[in-house]
Write a structure and sequence with these properties.
By secondary structure, the chain is α/β, with parallel strands linked by helices.
């Protein structure tokens, strides 16, 4: 919650989910919805990584944070709008060679530190 609050002080936060359901109730339950400007849910036939790429191209954010290595790699290589891609460092995405334009981070706290 603290990292999300700090991030909201630096940026407008849009949750981009490749899932077909909204995380709004979960965010609300933990009182995190107050930091979120918008939630964009995948209402297309695209799989999550390609949906996120399409939305990155449409929304043109400065940064994108993801926890899926394949998605981060696709976004870093294919986005044409120059969005900086952060990848949360989880055990399942370690030991994989990612594009040099993927910034590994310990999570939202690491993103906040990088943006400061």
């Amino acid at each position: 919650a603290e990292s999300l609050r700090a991030l909201a002080e630096l940026r407008t936060i849009v949750v981009l989910t490749g899932r077909r359901t909204s995380p709004h109730e979960w965010l609300q339950r933990y009182d995190l919805d107050q930091y979120i400007e918008e939630i964009v849910v995948n209402d297309t036939d695209l799989k999550s990584p390609h949906f996120k790429l399409q939305m990155i191209e449409a929304l043109r954010p400065s940064e994108h944070v993801d926890d899926d290595g394949r998605t981060a790699q696709l976004l870093a290589q294919a986005n044409t709008v120059g969005t900086r891609v952060f990848l949360c460092d989880w055990p399942r995405n370690r030991g994989v060679g990612y594009s040099r334009s993927v910034t590994r981070t310990s999570g939202l706290h690491g993103v906040v530190e990088a943006l400061r």
